[in-house]
């Protein structure tokens, strides 16, 4: 059965019982977003003889019991609520990756998966074998960015024939708000029943910038030992490599994550933490380890997919410095 991508099992530092304080309007809702905060500096006097203030700019990682802001250089600043003078969310800093077309970002990821592909103009048809017992939408759907090489009705008929010959139901991946989405919905294509209410945030990051923000990653975690494995991906192109970083405790794997890489791009996926060990920083440690491994292999850009309904994962990746490139959804034929 096909299932939504990506149900990362992570959690953030949000505490729903922690209200915003003062008139600044900051609160749990800013976790995972970029903020600027003006704070009092206790015991110091400002240039005019009054209280001293300082500004902190970075991504809010937790709100309760204190606001923690991680600067771009990787340092974390703890700001007690009582010292906050003012603050507000600010737009993320633009990066070169935002100028890369969505179709190119998605094709970089598609090139990592094993299976069969076929081109239909700009569109890419793909089927991949099940991964851990489930068919992944992002590896077994049509990447519909750009234009097919024929009228839309003919293209959709060819797609349905191609997937029927492989005993699969066709689904098309489109950018939300795109001309392709509008045209397909006009033809009656809608989200499959098991994807209704979902969308996928396609997130990107510069490996160098992410690693600077994360700082050095030790070979041990507070609750276990970190190990890495790497090797080829069965059925994929010969130059595709897979890296796994895992944390074990008492002989059991309690957290894990994968990164598939080719050339200077990689895709992070399947970051998971055992339920008993969530909220202990293991997901952050796994991603840091994956970034270290892919950097050693020459990767400069990393991509990941997260369901827009997965608030803990979105907060984690925003706190690490990932940027949302665009949002995608999947559409299936009229029922």
Automatic annotation (TrEMBL):
InterPro entries on file: Acyl_CoA_acyltransferase, GNAT_dom, SH3_Rv0428c, YpeA/RimI_acetyltransf
UniProt keyword terms in alphabetical order: Acyltransferase, Transferase
Annotated CDD domains: NAT_SF (cd04301)
Ranges of residues in domain N-acetyltransferase: 208-335
GO MF annotation list: acyltransferase activity, transferring groups other than amino-acyl groups
Region (Disordered): 1-28
Coiled-coil regions listed: none
Protein name: GNAT family N-acetyltransferase
